[in-house]
Amino acid sequence: MITLTELQTDALAEMFNVGAGHAAASLSEIVGDEVLLSIPRIAFCRRDEIGASLALLRSERLGAVRQDFSGAFSVNASLLFTEDKALEIVREMLGSQVSVDDLPEFEQEAMCELGNIILNACMASISEMLGVEMTSTLPQYFVNRTETVLDELTSDMQQPVVLVLHIDLTIEKRETHGALVFLLSSASFHELIAAVDRFLARI
Amino acid sequence: MSSAPPKTLLIVDDSRVSRMMIRTLVVARKPQWTVQECESGDEALVRLAQGVPDYVTMDINMPGTIGTDVAERILQAYPQVRMVVFSANVQAAHQARAAAMGACFVPKPVSERNVQLALNFFDGAA
After folding, report:
1. Domain range spanning residue A34?
2. B23, CA 20 to 30 Å: which among A19, A142, A152, B37?
3. CA distance linking residue B86 with residue B108, whole number of Å
4. Residue of higher predicted confidence among A86 and B80
């Protein structure tokens, strides 16, 4: 396990909570109802520990929206939901505009937009509070067997550090659980923590 | 030199970093103020029984009772308190609820600009 000080953890958690708050407001505008989006805890782990960290998401298949961010440090960010939950979210986002039969057709686009909103809101909050600039790639969505998704996520040996954030997302009274997974190289992890320390020193 | 008596501000936020940032930015502008902190809304309700602050900043998403419920209870019991709901939960519903109870909604992140918005609201009461 990778351990941070209480203050470092608190600072990062607050940055993600601010991001989640802004993402929830954007999603709320899309669905026309209140959205609850909370990040109850954050934890760093090693690449080979990711399976245990995501035990709550145990499902045969996962949907993942992936986006890469680069700047002061580089992060491969992914939003994960079990496939059935992903379709439920798409249904809530599109409402009655699309028939149930047509939902899978819109899944790709809707999940990319959801990932784009949540991942960018989190990274925007981090870059704003840390005073660093980040650019991102376009979101990509893929669905596959859980093992395949996790293998794919952790295939890059250059990125051994994983930040896992569990998120609770409630849209129109439907509660779903997902996870945000951020992969960093050792160098990027140390850059991130150094930036957090500089941020804390300014308070 | 102002002859106004020093004011007391209570910061209610479960994030220690947020409390530190709000305190630092407020004290830089209002060095004569007394600043107190609580980690939750429930702790704030207990604290108020011992003394009522002039001003409160209230986070929304905290363990225990959510901040907007606590803010409403405080304003019902102590309507003289000036309340800022200071939260990352920036959805219209929360902003409307804050306005309805007579509080001022200020969005997070904690920044110089946003703390100044809170202070403007507090100063408006002076």
Report:
1. 6-202
2. A19
3. 6
4. B80
Handedness of CA A193, A16, A79, A147 (dihedral sign): positive
Nearest residue on chain B to A124, alpha-carbon basis:
B109
Q: Are A25 and A184 in contact (CB under 8 A)?
A: no
pLDDT tens per residue across span B70-104: 999 999 999 999 999 999 988 888 999 999 999 99
Q: At A133, list the tokens.
A: 């600039």
* CA–CA separation, B28 and A41 (whole Å): 32
A11 close contact with B: CB closer than 8 A: yes
Determine the pLDDT at residue A160.
Answer: 87
Q: Where are the domains of chain B?
A: 8-120
Query: How many residues are recorded in chain B?
Result: 126
Angle between helices B92-100 and B67-77 (to 10 degrees): 10
Residue range B8-120 forms a domain whose CATH class is: alpha beta
Contacts A41 to B, Cβ<8 Å: none
Q: How many residues does chain A have?
A: 203
Task: Determine the pLDDT at residue B32.
Answer: 96
- Would you say residue A15 lies in a domain? yes
In chain B the first and final C-alpha atoms are separated, in Å, by 15
Q: Would you call the peptide bond into B109 cis, given omega within 30 degrees of 0 as the criterion?
A: yes
Across-strand partners of A188? none
pTM flag (> 0.95):
no
The whole-number pLDDT of residue A1 equals 64
| Tally of domains in chain A | 1
Average pLDDT over every residue of A3-17: 92
Whether B90 and A128 lie within 8 Å, measured CB to CB: no
User: Is residue A97 situated within a structural domain?
Assistant: yes
CATH assignment at residue A53: 3.40.1550.10
Amino acid identity, position A118? I
In chain A, which among 38-77 make CB contacts under 8 A with chain B? 38
